[in-house]
Amino acid sequence: MSTINIEVPDIGDFADVPVIEVLVKSGDRVEADAPLVTLESDKATMDIPAPVAGVIGQITVKVGDRVSQGATIGTMEPAAASSEAAPAAVPAATNAAAPAPAAPAATPAAVAAVAATAVEPPVRAAAAPVQDGRRPHASPSMRAYARELGVDLARVPASGPKNRITREDINAFVKGALQAPASSGGASGGGTGLDLLPWPKVDFTKFGAVERKPLSRIRKLSAANLSRNWVMIPAVTYHEDADVTDLEAFRQQINAEQAKSGVKLTMLAFIIKAVCSALKKFPEFNSSIDLQADEPALILKQYCHIGFAADTPGGLVVPVIRDADGKGVAQLAAECGELAAKARDGKLSAAEMQGACFTISSVGGLGGTGFAPIINAPEVAILGVSRTTMKPVWDGSGFQPRLILPLSLTADHRVVDGASATRFNAHVATLLADMRRVLM
User: CA dihedral in degrees (201, 175, 413, 423; nearest 10)?
Assistant: First the structure.
């Protein structure tokens, strides 16, 4: 039987793409188009399929290797074109698609990470039966995405080639589950359903002219995460005012002095610095709740990576500044500017949107007096920042004009109680009023 090379097919404009998963081994029998290895570029995760049905001779790449179009990743022996070879290929697809720990897909939805949830996911639509006891056919990236949303892939109808489950299939399943009438178990008040009414179907053209505008890719990808976080996290928002009169005067002074050097300090950089200090004083805010283990627990993180919401033409994305606690304000301001620019240009890599411990969402440049940001699971809190306003503040003998910065802290009540959230918010406000306290 002849041996053929397995080559990387056309993968678009990508080159030197890293291998993140090897799904088969020598001797495995696979069917045509079964995934063999998984690649992850800056923008997407993709599987390299088997060109024909047959037996794997060897796989010559390993995790971490980089490949481009046309590169040989292994060899295989094609199966004989007979009815006897076909049945043997069936279980191979199961092996090839078996789940393994995989890096999240390089999308803005990946900044949400894997959700920790103890309740049954809101999947009440009709189940897709598992064929012949086989596991659902999905790539590692789609399995990671399904775990992130709490979706059982065995219930998701597949529409992709060779009955493969796609991202669109998962999104459609979640949407259908949220729109479906509550099951009898949920309606009975047993706590097993969300008891949601169907989404209203309205013919808006009956009332006047309309324009249909497709959602951007970012909004499509983030919709499911936002819905899950809003429904599944018992969140409470706490408000605090920070007096940043002296800090703003200092910021403007430094920027004036350093105008020629190009250094420009931003209020966001000072807020990140204050938050890093507060996370060390209140470590439960730098944690994630793990309810999927046998014994529920908090995962307390010993690092401090801060995400910040960046506005782009397609929607919000969350770049992450790594090890923010070890960086100065000038460096933080520079990194924020660089990451925000890359976000607007759509050039953020997967690594630049992963691993955040805590997120800051600032709308101060636009306005607003306060808001309740949605927590970015599996984080346990998020800080919303609104626009500074000059207000009269009583100093004991009279009212003085002071520059006030509104802070809105949303926290997961399963992890953070009201007293802790109030203390955290007040501590951040105290640090912003006098940044010298960060050194203490």
Answer: -80
